[in-house]
Write a structure and sequence with these properties.
- Two copies of one chain form a homodimer.
- Chain A has six helices and three strands, in the order ααβααββαα.
- In chain A, α2 (44-55) packs across α5 (108-129).
- The model of chain A has no long low-confidence stretch (mean pLDDT 95).
- In chain A, 68% of the residues lie in helices and 8% in strands.
- The first copy, chain A, is mainly alpha-helical.
- The two termini of chain A are 32 Å apart.
- At the A-B interface, α1, α5 and α6 of A face α1, α5 and α6 of B.
- The structure holds a DNA duplex (30 and 30 nucleotides).
DNA sequence: TATCGATACATGCAAATGCATCTAGTTTGA
DNA sequence: TCAAACTAGATGCATTTGCATGTATCGATA
């Protein structure tokens, strides 16, 4: 096949296959991770919110910022935070600069639980990813996925 | 830092960061894709089952095979298939070689709908992934994620 | 500054999900 | 050969999710 149509079509196909592969690998890894004992006490999605808060320098994040990182609707995140708050793992505070906003932060208990689960979680990840790819391949995968994420985030 | 402890810890950290990046990029892309008009008529997860069937050479798959590809519990998949069946998009058949098994196949309507949504979906993917990574980078990302998936699938 | 549209988050409600369990068919091994 | 353990898939039920909408606040404009 020759000409721009053929080239465009194969570019489209490559993009589709790349996404498909990325998606399936994510499913395969996530399936293993979430079935581990680390998430008996707390579902993965709830852990992810604790984790996101733990990584943030100020220790506080707006709900809409968290919502960007997580594959959940706004309302689902709101209720997920309800559950975390009822368990005493996070705290809601009014945002100082925006009367509509809510700041979320970890409580001491939330921080402890995040660390406990996190340690085991990281071990599980290493056991799955470590044997699969060399260090260089991991660095390259990290670079490519970060580049993709950044591009997609900026529309 | 020197010695095996330092090296091991940095290997663990690299694996964790790689997974984190892969996961976040998947979230970012999926969020864009599923909000597109292609999935107004059919949720992404249901489309994914039609797509999986469409790609399979025999045109038939066991439910447990489909379950490996999708991040859903066995019971959720069973009900998802109920919905597809009620809409006349797929058909359940008894597996010939295993009295417990169910074979799933696309109906004509299911195949049509898959193609219609699929065309738009592929375009959306190309618009997101194409500008983000060069062709070579996409091929490398495809290779790395496929290698990861294969390794994880084989325990 | 008064108004109108946009944004942040919460909530009612129907739909989707997962866990535990059930039924039925298959495999193993004594 | 037959009972026990295992696997495939369906179903009851409580939890989680998303859509639509509500309330409050913000920002732009006339």
């Amino acid at each position: 096949m020759s000409g721009p149509t053929g080239a465009a079509s194969s570019a489209v196909r490559l993009a589709a296959e790349t996404w498909e592969s990325l998606f399936r690998s994510q499913v395969a890894v996530m399936r293993k991770l979430q079935s581990g004992p680390a998430f008996k006490t707390l579902p993965v999605k709830e852990y992810d919110v604790l984790f996101t808060l733990s990584k943030c320098p100020s220790g506080q994040l707006r709900l809409n910022e968290i919502n960007d990182k997580v594959l959940l609707s706004q309302s689902s995140l709101s209720r997920l935070v309800d559950r975390l708050e009822k368990r005493g793992l996070v705290e809601r505070t009014a945002a100082p600069d925006d009367g509509r906003g809510v700041l979320l932060s970890l409580t001491e208990a939330g921080s402890e639980l995040q660390k406990t689960i996190g340690r085991e979680h990281v071990r599980d990840i290493a056991h799955l990813v470590g044997p699969a790819l060399t260090s260089e391949e991991q660095r390259e995968l990290l670079r490519l996925t970060e580049k993709l994420r950044a591009s997609v985030a900026g529309h």
